[in-house]
Design brief:
Blueprint lengths: L3 E2 L10 H7 L1 H4 L10 H20 L7 E4 L2 H15 L6 E5 L4 H12 L3 E5 L9 H7 L4 E5 L13 H11 L2 E5 L11 H4 L3 E5 L10 E5 L14 H4 L7 H39 L3 E3 L10 E6 L4 H10 L2 E2 L15 H5 L4 H5 L1 E5 L6 H20 L2 H11 L3
Parallel strand pairs: 1-11, 3-4, 3-5, 5-6, 6-7
Antiparallel strand pairs: 2-8, 7-8, 9-10, 10-12
Bound molecules: pyridoxal-5'-phosphate.
Length: 395
């Protein structure tokens, strides 16, 4: 039985063309880009070519791209970097209750350091209201950080609209675009952002490499102190193969994005329709239309997410409950709680995320297997038996 991978939001397999592009940078062109000899200069050329590629894909200048080790590092650098650089100007940050932990945790860290953080609520689809952001901005606000798309429920935030407000009010605006970069076409000017985080392993590139876009003129306090790499903005020897891999992944994304996006969205819609046709007491989490092309997040009544995942895994199907980063935590997903789900509904949640290698036959397989799993699990649930018996007698 061929294994079926439907957890592309957690990570993606590295595209073979990306591996091929990275390969020479492990042994042939292995120099340190900071060295002045030819080994070093060849590696530097590769890093600068990659910077140009990433920058042009965002409509940015090469000098506005800083390579990092991950989406998490980019988020941390953006938030703590702005906060520390603007201590004298103000101590207020605005974000939402549905951000990734890579934004939530640095925000909590800053609260412990004396900053004031406003965590704005979202509606039942996971959308933040731009007018609430406008109302929350004070003379002390130094940063607004709102994710482009939610990694758990796929909801796309009105980033361009928010960016107009922050620009008018003269407040720096960061977006975590880890789930959208390479999957949707946009530039930093389309989005009106000053800072944008991205990560290679979500777009068929290697793990352990990311980037932060920093608009010219925006000053951040560096968080890595050491050498003078990245224009003194981020010390540490460059991950040259990783950076080359990121650039190749961007190149492939530009080639495939539009066709891939509509193919995957059609499979997503087939999966959603099929699940609703075959399983009762199921709800779609996230926005019905304003959502990532590859995201299906559902709550199945009277079923535990973990039990469904383990049963699916036994049948060779990989998906997740909420974000992969919380797969070791027993806490209910903060995102599902923020959109108003009860503890029971969060426990019954499943996230399928589709990708480049997802085939229609795999969606058919899920639609055949999951309803049987749900029936079996519900047969063991006294609560479900009592409500279905009640329904049978008209109660
Ligand atoms: C929205 C979002 N932000 C940040 C991250 C962290 O990225 P990385 O795994 O590169 O640290 C993730 C990863 O799941 C994510 O989905």
């Amino acid at each position: 039985m061929k294994a079926i991978y439907l957890d592309y939001a957690a990570t993606t397999p590295v595209d073979p063309e990306v591996i091929e592009a990275m390969h020479p940078y492990f042994r042939e062109t292995f120099g340190n880009p900071s060295s002045i000899h030819s080994f070093g200069q060849q590696a530097r050329t590769a890093v600068e070519d990659a910077r140009e590629k990433v920058a042009s894909s965002l409509g940015a200048k090469p000098a506005e791209i800083v390579f990092t080790s991950s989406g998490t590092e980019s988020d941390n650098y953006a938030i703590k970097g702005i906060a520390c650089a603007n201590r004298r100007k103000g101590n207020h940050i605005i974000t939402t209750t549905v951000e990734h932990h890579a934004v939530m945790e640095p925000s909590h860290f800053l609260e412990r350091e004396g900053f004031e953080v406003t965590f704005l609520p979202v509606d039942s689809h996971g959308l933040v209201d731009p007018q609430e952001i406008a109302r929350a901005i004070t003379g002390k606000t130094v940063l607004v950080s709102i994710m482009h798309a939610n990694n758990e429920i796929g909801t796309l935030q009105p980033i361009a609209e928010i960016g107009k407000i922050t620009r008018e009010r003269g407040v720096c605006f960061h977006t975590d675009a880890v789930q959208t970069f390479g999957h949707m076409p946009f530039t930093v000017d389309d989005l009106n952002v000053d800072l944008l985080s991205l990560s290679a392993h979500k777009l068929y590139g290697p793990k352990g490499v990311g980037a932060l876009y920093i608009r010219q003129g925006v000053r951040l306090e560096p968080h890595m102190h050491g050498g003078e790499q990245e224009g003194k903005r981020r010390a540490s020897t460059h991950n040259v193969p990783g950076i080359v891999g990121l650039a190749k992944a961007v190149d492939l994304a530009q080639r495939f994005m539009s066709e891939e996006g509509s193919r995957i969205a059609a499979l997503r819609d087939k999966l959603i329709r099929g699940l609703f046709d075959r399983i009762d007491r199921v709800r779609l989490n996230g926005h019905p239309d304003r959502r990532l092309a590859n995201n299906v997040n559902i709550s199945v009544g009277y079923c535990e997410g973990e039990a469904m995942i383990l049963s699916l895994d036994l049948m060779g199907i990989a998906c997740s409950t909420g974000s992969a980063c919380s797969s070791t935590s027993v806490e209910p997903s903060h995102v599902l709680r923020a959109i108003g789900l009860s503890i029971e509904e969060t426990r019954g949640s499943l996230r399928f995320s589709l990708g480049r290698y997802t085939e229609e036959s795999e969606i058919d397989q899920v639609l055949e297997v999951l309803p049987k799993i749900v029936r079996r699990l519900r047969a063991m649930s006294p609560a479900y038996r009592s409500i279905s018996a009640g329904r049978g007698t008209g109660g």
